[in-house]
Amino acid sequence: MNKDNKLLHFTLGPVQGFVSQARRTRDLWSGSFLLSYLSGQAMRAVLDGGGKVIFPEVGDQPSITDPLLAAIMGHPLSGNENPQTGSLPNRFKAEVPDDFDPKRCRDAVQSRWQEIADVVWERYVVLVAGHGKGTKEIWERQVESFWEMGWVLGEDPGDRSDQRWLDLRKNWRTHHPPAEPGDKCTLMGSWQEISGYVRARECKSQEEFWDALRRKSGELNLGEHERLCAIALIKRLFPGVAEDAIGWKLEAGTWPSTPYMAAVPWIEEAYEKPEAKEYLCILEEGDRLSWAFGEYNTKLPCLEKAGRFARLDGNLFHKTALDNERAMPELSAQKREKLLDVLSKLNRAVGHPASPFYALLLMDGDRLGSLLQHDQIDPKDVSRALARFTEGVDEIVGEHCGRTVYAGGDDVLALLPLDRALSAAEKLRERFLKSFDAVLGGRRPKGEDGEPLRTTISAGLVFAHYNTTLRSVMREAHRLLDEVAKDRNGRDSLAASVLTGSGRTVEWVSGWEESPGGPLITRHLQNLASSFDEQFAGRFFYNVRERFGVLTGEDDHTLIPGLDAEKLLVAEYLKNREREGDREAAEAVIEQLLKVCRERRGGEPANEKTLNVSGAMLVRFLATKGRGVER
Hints:
By secondary structure, this protein is of the alpha+beta class. It is 45% helix and 12% strand.
């Protein structure tokens, strides 16, 4: 580092308050992308001011290697001229000239945000604003005051203690959002909706405003009961004006809905059946229902050959949704009856209905701050390893027929079909470990245990019913990752849960490996689930939960001293299978089942004195794919 330069740490937020407040998968992606894009504007201010971004690894001018920052700088990478995924984190570290003013970063973010807001306003809102009550004032107040930016500028302390600067800075609260009166946004509940009317006494005027805006923006962009604030409206409508707002098109129409993602494995099995063609014919006869083909290009590799059947609205794959007049009011009673009949025939031809569950995967590197402060590790190596990891994320998610919402630094957020989520998490972890191995090689310093320092990643995996709100799913993913996998289980762990509209039904956590360096626990889960029908009787798992739940501690699942869980489980297994003579086979099955039912902290062997029946219930869920059995 040049001795005349200084270090700058910069952060942009709120992250959860912006990204997680989502009703649709497109909101989730749009929020992640926009936050990443604005962070890139702050980085550009550093680069234009003669500085250099140190963390994350983005390359040097003019050879920027991050695709989003390269596009922002006006020199997009060949083959990725129009990046579609956010890849820049909301906080970064830079080396800047002594006279660099960090306000340039703040002004760059605010200026670009204002330009994006202006495009949305001019395209959709300005002609409707006259129907509102102070709409322009509400809009300007919210756009101006939403983002919270903080920074610390100082000389290099030489001991890497600058890595704590931003955490200390957060204790100094300087951002105070304005008071928000009136009716609140249906997506971001602490902000006023922009019509300005109070529904209790001005319902008609409020409805007229939102009806007018709905006609202007399109019903697919603004739902019947949605009344949004400026921030949520920009997030929702920005992708449609991206070419004017940021200079390139965003493929916002291709994001699969949650019912669609849940149905992906079933679509793969169904689309070639004669009943699938009959189903399409019913939808195409008479009045054309354009909304029925709304998921026209979800870009899921596994469905490339599924043709028009894979373009159907996700709700049309689920009997419960199809039978709900409120979910699809455009269908006539006669057509709905025909569709229900053919869908039943199609389900019989496939052998089962579509699962109502999809997966949301959130991953994050462990103890990254400590790693960057380690005096024997070059922070540039950490940055290079993370860049190497990020480069491979989208390919891995795509191979598992999912969509990457965000991939930057050590963070990953992805939507996946239920049946491929564990494998995707496993491959992403493998990529993370190999990325650090490739960069650090044999230069790893020793940790506190005297062994070479490990670089690990944890994951929160939510199997969610498609009717569960995305806000709840995101909140659950963060809880699993931060509280369960990292804090409670010591990191280097995978935490999973099953979330229905009525709440959480299963929660499970384990270190990734059966024992340090041993087989992956995810493999055992998948093997047990795939052989579920041959190996387990229907009541076995419920009996295990009922009988063994009372034999262990509520918090740590410690067995009563002297209790042999394996012998009891074998006895229960044989009783359910009614085959007393097959004890050897039963012991082999139970041995494998116990591997996913023992408490196992990250990087440690299993605690043989514990039994967590959630592991067994997760196996059952994965095997049945949650088809009507998890409530």
